[in-house]
Write a structure and sequence with these properties.
Layout lengths: L1 H11 L1 H5 L9 H7 L2 E17 L2 E17 L5 E7 L14 E11 L2 E5 L7 E2 L4 H11 L1
Parallel strand pairs: 3-5
Antiparallel strand pairs: 1-2, 1-4, 2-3, 4-5, 4-6
Protein name: Tissue inhibitor of metalloproteinase
Keywords: Signal
């Protein structure tokens, strides 16, 4: 009976149960201002990580980047960025050996620095960021 009820609810309200809601798009300047770390980097590896909030467990991914250019934030050669494993949970779908423009924010995880990004941020594959990179360079001068 529980399975039947779950299937019915998922078919009637799928977007309300699992959809990512970004609440609109911000400008390049707004995203730059609110981000702790903005960079261009190549994905070295992607690994699953598991998080617990309350009594629920969530699968996220940890994406390691080799940084080629820092736009905002501390100077790093590599960085790990966390994101949700699913786009329905606002996770960004990174691909290994691809280069991205990444906007990220530091979140508090005790004594460890953890940077986070979502598909609601302006993060994108570098091939789709030509004009945005020019705008960012103009903003940081």
């Amino acid at each position: 009976m529980k399975i039947l009820l779950t299937v019915i609810l998922l078919s009637i309200f799928p977007n309300h149960l699992f959809a990512c809601d970004c609440n609109g798009t911000v400008t390049v300047k707004e995203e730059l201002d609110k981000s702790n770390l903005v960079f261009v980097g190549n994905v070295i590896s992607i690994s699953p990580i598991y998080a617990k909030r309350g009594d629920k467990y969530y699968t996220n991914v940890l994406v390691k980047f080799k940084i080629s250019s820092i736009i905002k934030g501390e100077s790093l050669k590599t960085v790990e960025i966390a994101t949700a494993a699913s786009s329905s949970m606002c996770g960004f779908n990174f691909k290994e050996d691809k280069e991205f423009l990444v906007y990220s924010n530091q979140i508090d995880q005790g004594s460890k620095k953890v940077f986070w990004t979502t598909n609601c941020d302006r993060t994108k594959e570098i091939s789709k960021a030509t004009f945005e990179i020019k705008e960012l360079n103009a903003l940081i001068k």
